[in-house]
Amino acid sequence: MTLDDFPLTHALQLGRLDALDQHALVRRGELSPAELAAAGIVRARHLDPALGALSHADFDAALMRAAQVDRNAPMAGVPWLPKDSLRYPGMPTRGGSRSRSGVAATDASPFVQRFDAAGLVAIGKSCMPEFGLMGSTEPLLGPVTRNPWVPAHSPGGSSGGAGAALAAGIVPLAHGSDGAGSIRIPASACGVVGLKPGRGTTVAVRGRHAIEDLIVADSLMSRSVRDTAWAFAAAHPLGGLDLDAVARPPARLRIGVVSGALPGLAPDPAVAAVLADVVELCTSLGHQVQATDYPLPGEAVWQALYTLWSRLGQDAVELAVAQGGEDFAALALEPWTHGLARYHRTHCDVVALEQAYAVLAALPGAFNRFHQRFDVLLTPTLRTPPPLLGELAPDRDFDALMPAVFEWISYTPLQNLAGTPAISLPLGQAGALPIGVQFAADRGQEPLLLQLAAELEQAAPWRDRWPMVSVATALKEMD
Is 383 exposed, middle or buried (CB count within 10 Å of its CB: 0-12, 13-18, 19+)? Predict the structure, then answer.
């Protein structure tokens, strides 16, 4: 079967299914792996022009890969999207930056190898902001990614292309990497499930880096908790996650609720209303829910984030200068990246870096003590609903942009600094835009978070909620 032969209606109908249900069709012999992957490509061709979720299309190579997949593999033929920062053989790794050449990668990390072995078929790459340094996916390299619910709004970032593609139903699984919320931010903004694993819980994804090793975590985002659980199990180096146990409700939990963001900012009223609804839902399920405070001084944590995040900008500038010289770096890198580097050079000396690492060292113990009292921490995922595109554009004035970015994402970086797991669930709406809430737990408690997430998904299902740009809307328009 060629792409032109695959009916659009059938491809859109398949897009309503999660990854496990899509693969069930292969297991029963109703579709071949190649047909399942072809359906994802048809959906991408139909829906992505309105979204800009894909930074790179690899359709012909994807069909060749799908034809060679073992149909007995756990996810044979299921289409997925690596992020533009994830090295995938045969595809460029541009990281959303004009400074990258676009030369195709020739190797794959253990993370990629595990998903290839599971039979997943990468049909392209998802769009991201330059080097993942921004909370909105509007790279000057292009394309600008739109939120499928209201296309004038941001899908979040840095895994914004992944979030948009999932919400629309183009693919059921998409890779996200999270250094300050970059999985959970687009999960909230696009209405999907985003798990940030704890520090060191997945197989190697990239080369070693003194900061990224400590704060960045990777997983596959999805529309269903069970798909997210499967992906975490597949990338866990020790394995052993009981997926059947994830589907069973956990013991009744002690849930601590913090409504304010770490720097002392109050949430938007629409976000506060969703948080209150989720508190009521958790209480109705028998969990013990109690207001509490963060277990640490917020100002020191916030300064550590600014120091480490701006250091990543400085690293990007230094690498571009080494690659092509000062003039090349000045033209190839975005104003936001240069602004972070300037901030670091001006405000972050060696003492500031030492203090940032001291905060990183103290946080795991602080959270371990916190989780002796509360099994789970509940907060909003984002302080406001998704902003309009342009409000967090990388070429805005840096002095205004920096507080705007970090105030919007002010709930998510704490778990990156602490190395603890957290998950964003699409449990609310503000008008047409999704609002996510975040649950976090102690090190090694990803199974607990997934159990709680599965229970909440059953109690307040989101499976049949679809955005303006999606497979469901396209099917209605064809009726």
Answer: buried
> Which parts of the chain sit beneath pLDDT 70?
1-4
> What is the maximal distance between C-alpha atoms in the chain?
64
Question: Is residue 297 exposed (0-12), middle (13-18) or buried (19+ Cβ within 10 Å)?
Answer: exposed
Distance CA 469, CA 164 (A): 9
In angstroms, the CA 79 to CA 319 distance is 33
**Can you give the pLDDT at residue 2?**
62
Would residue 150 be called left, alpha or beta, if left means φ above 0 and alpha means ψ between -120 and 50 degrees?
Answer: beta
Give the per-residue pLDDT at 393: 98
* Residue 49 structure tokens: 């022009």
Rounded distance, CA 194 to CA 134, Å? Answer: 17
Which candidate, 217, 181, 175, places its Cα nearest to that of 200?
Answer: 217
Cα 234 to Cα 95: distance, rounded to the nearest angstrom: 24
Q: What is the pLDDT of residue 425?
A: 99
What residues are labeled active site? 83, 158, 182
Please name every residue paired with 89 in a beta bridge, in sequence order, or none if there are none: 105
